[in-house]
């Protein structure tokens, strides 16, 4: 099997030819990968901004593929089923978080393409209990970004308080999906891009944003909530300043540059700043049901598997509209 492998953070991925595809354990399924999205978290891992990945590592946690074989203890999946593998690869089921239905915070959680090999490959194995069935509404490539960008965006939106006016800082893969869910829920969308990114602002308007501008601008009305998808700490005080009393600012990324000091005034008035970490399997079920109802479409740029480094470079340089997806 062919795979793209990270040997050490900071270096490009290496293409690797293996004589055998991984075999599923008793509770695992083996998957022939049809598409795997490239997420900003992959970039943080490759660039060394997230500590202690498994090495060598096959990155990728937005996997869409067909079940190739099932382990002896797996029920509910058959060869040929279309499935998705998200970031959450395994949780312990025993810690206080798991027992409280907050498995996204599990003390011993393992993550796809970080603690276990992911989807920048032709085949992978995954614990069947953490795999999501993929509805047939979407093409393989179109479905891939839903597995992380879509899921995390949904969780961020869900935890942002349900107010009418929602701001999106950083208009990439996650925002372009979450915007469609927000509009379906009857919310108004305000898009903030890099100050000179008129193309991105146009893209946001084409998806239904009521207003689009630079992240250094104030929206025409104060926001009820703001979701930050760009890994840029100074956006936190900027978003708070654009948010009305009682509003929530959600940091949706796994990594962010330092947040600068800011006057207490911008937090005063019961404004909330919070992060969103990982996802639960329940988020996955809810999100796919809502994405189907909202008829979510994704904008993708496909790359061959061997083009993984180019896809990561384009993501790093902010040169992608929507999401990059690797096709083996
Ligand atoms: Zn746990
Ligand atoms: Zn991700």
Care to describe what's here?
- This protein is of the alpha/beta class and 328 residues long.
- The protein is built from nine helices and 17 strands.
- It has helices at 40-46, 96-99, 140-143, 149-158, 173-184, 198-206, 235-241, 281-293, 308-316, and strands at residues 2-5, 14-17, 28-38, 63-70, 82-85, 88-90, 110-111, 123-127, 132-133, 165-169, 188-193, 211-214, 223-228, 243-251, 272-275, 300-304, 323-327.
- Strands 3, 4, 5, 8, 9, 16 and 17 form a seven-stranded mixed β-sheet that branches. A six-stranded parallel β-sheet has the order 12-11-10-13-14-15, with helices on both faces.
- Helix 7 links the parallel strand 13 and strand 14 (243-251).
- Helix 4 packs across helix 8 (281-293).
- 48% of the residues are buried.
- One zinc ion binds next to loops.
- The mean pLDDT is 96
Number of DSSP helical runs: 9
Which descriptor suits the 3D outline?
Answer: globular
- Determine the fraction of residues in helical runs and give it as a percent range: 10-25%
Number of E-state strands? 17
Largest sheet: 7 strands, mixed
Q: β content, as a range?
A: 25-35%
C-alpha termini separation? 10 Å
Ions, cofactors and other bound molecules: zinc ion
What is the gyration radius calculated from CA atoms? Answer: 19 Å
**SSE sequence, one letter per element:** EEEHEEEHEEEHHEHEHEEHEEHEHE
The helix-and-strand class reads: alpha/beta
Q: State the low-pLDDT regions, or none.
A: none
